[in-house]
Amino acid sequence: MNGDLEKIMKALTDEYAIKILVASYHREKSAIELSQELDVPIAACYRRLHMLQELGLLAARERVNGKGKKTKYYNSLIKRARISIEDNHVVVEVTFRSGDIRKFEGEIVRKGYGK
Known about the structure:
Number of domains: 1
Radius of gyration: 17 Å
Shape: elongated
Largest sheet: 3 strands, antiparallel
CATH superfamily: Winged helix-like DNA-binding domain superfamily/Winged helix DNA-binding domain
Number of helices: 4
Mean pLDDT: 92
Strand content: 25-35%
Structural class: alpha+beta
C-alpha cells in the first residue's frame, strides 16, 4: 500500500481517532473537552488531533478568551468514510461535509511478493 493510503486507513481504524471525529462532528471542541468526554489520555488525544489535521479530516480554529488565553477548537470535516476490500485491492472513500470526495486506493500485497 502507498503512504497516503496507509495513513488514512490507520486513522479510520484507530479507536481514539474515530471517537474524536464523531464527538467533534456537530460542535467544535477543545482537546481538553475531547480528552475528558471520551476518556482518552490527553497526550494520545493531541497525537490523534495532529494526525487528523495533517490528513485534512479535522479543522482547528483558535479562540482567545477574555483573559487572553488561546485555545484551539477542533471540528470534524468528514461526513462519511467507507473502506472496501476486494481481492487484493483496497479503496477508502472519504466524503467531506463540503460535498467533496477523496479516494485512496491500492494493492494490499504487492504482486509477486513472496514468490
